[in-house]
Amino acid sequence: MAAELARAFELLDDEWAQARLAEAFGAVIEPGLAEEIARRVVDLMPVVPVDPVATLCRLLAELPKLPTIVVPLDPPEVRMRFGAVEIPDLATLAMLLNVTPSELEWFADRGGWLRRSTQPLSHYRYRRLPKANGTRLVEAPKVRLREIQRRILHKVLTGIPADPACHGFEKGRSAATFGAPHAGAPVVVRMDLRDFFPTIGLARVRTVFTACGYSPAVARVLAELCTTASPVAELRGLDHAQRTLLAVPHLPQGAPTSPRLANLVARGLDRRLTGYANRHGLTYTRYADDLALSGNANTAHLVWTVTRIAEDEGFTVHPAKTRIRRAHQRQILAGLVVNAHPTAPRDRYDAVRALLHNCLRTGATAQNLHGHNDFRAHVYGLISWIGETSPHRRDKLLTMADRVDWTR
């Protein structure tokens, strides 16, 4: 009997509240008794446990005078999609992630206790980076949680296809493939999504895992492992809009799962903007929070429509960052000039070349003005970015970099 009542709650997949528990139990036993049992369950455990079904089984089995008449319930057929690994229950999930069940609950922060914790107890490290109109809070997971998130990324998320219009953080795609479709366009419009990661909350992330075929309980915990609500102490000094987003579970900037999950959540946005572009003879691509549309466009109508579609999909366009560039102007997407073909701006190439020249003259350490932990890797990353669209420039910079003494 206890198992059947617990199973009824899982099928309903709803909030942990007396009324909703009573509704679930009412599918198995008569309503009056269902309400009484729901009241007793909530009295014993007022907060949703990490594994509601298993916990309900234990609680209900200990309650006296449960009826023995059972209405049989057929378990739903589980169909995994996108090649995701099968995870039938939370015990299997804990094994897959190499944690104990209690650690799974701790890292998922089911009770929200870490939102009031100090740095030593938190699963994240926080740092602030300046941006054009304020401050960006970077939430980087500590070692154990980062390992868990990487397992989720590789075991669950890798096989789910992103929309073809999406080019950021996707294998085989890049800033160059993002900008290439717009080369030679008479008009290029770039629009920016405000607070891209923080805007994506727990419910939208959970939907991604549900689409893979996972049960409500497993999908919920996976989503909780990939989201965070920043502690109150870390929000001080931020503007009201940022505090509002960061105070509730959201995708953290700095987590290995966040870029992939953001791309999957934005599939609806990509589909709708691709459809709009196709209807009007335009081209659309997206790189993370950068939207690009090009062609012969009524730019006022385009900006208005894209803004409305983005809002309808749960995102907000940053109007101050919208850029409209015509063929006689420098058209820049993701830092690349795309007028003829995607290429790094000349001034960026000159800056890296000057940096390497100074490294050869004074040594690398004196040129690490921003304190990069691995300055050599940082410089080679810049060379790789420039070389992606210009092998000739890459070769010239690599020749200089190979002569630098990175130890002094």
Automatic annotation (TrEMBL):
<keyword id="KW-0051">Antiviral defense</keyword>
<dbReference type="GO" id="GO:0003964">
    <property type="term" value="F:RNA-directed DNA polymerase activity"/>
</dbReference>
<dbReference type="GO" id="GO:0051607">
    <property type="term" value="P:defense response to virus"/>
</dbReference>
<dbReference type="GO" id="GO:0046872">
    <property type="term" value="F:metal ion binding"/>
</dbReference>
<dbReference type="InterPro" id="IPR000123">
    <property type="entry name" value="Reverse_transcriptase_msDNA"/>
</dbReference>
<keyword id="KW-0808">Transferase</keyword>
<keyword id="KW-0479">Metal-binding</keyword>
<dbReference type="GO" id="GO:0003723">
    <property type="term" value="F:RNA binding"/>
</dbReference>
<dbReference type="InterPro" id="IPR000477">
    <property type="entry name" value="RT_dom"/>
</dbReference>
<dbReference type="InterPro" id="IPR051083">
    <property type="entry name" value="GrpII_Intron_Splice-Mob/Def"/>
</dbReference>
<keyword id="KW-0548">Nucleotidyltransferase</keyword>
<feature type="domain" description="Reverse transcriptase">
    <location>
        <begin position="110"/>
        <end position="338"/>
    </location>
</feature>
<dbReference type="Pfam" id="PF00078">
    <property type="entry name" value="RVT_1"/>
</dbReference>
<dbReference type="InterPro" id="IPR043502">
    <property type="entry name" value="DNA/RNA_pol_sf"/>
</dbReference>
<comment type="similarity">
    <text>Belongs to the bacterial reverse transcriptase family.</text>
</comment>
<protein>
    <recommendedName>
        <fullName>RNA-directed DNA polymerase</fullName>
        <ecNumber>2.7.7.49</ecNumber>
    </recommendedName>
</protein>
<keyword id="KW-0460">Magnesium</keyword>
<keyword id="KW-0695">RNA-directed DNA polymerase</keyword>
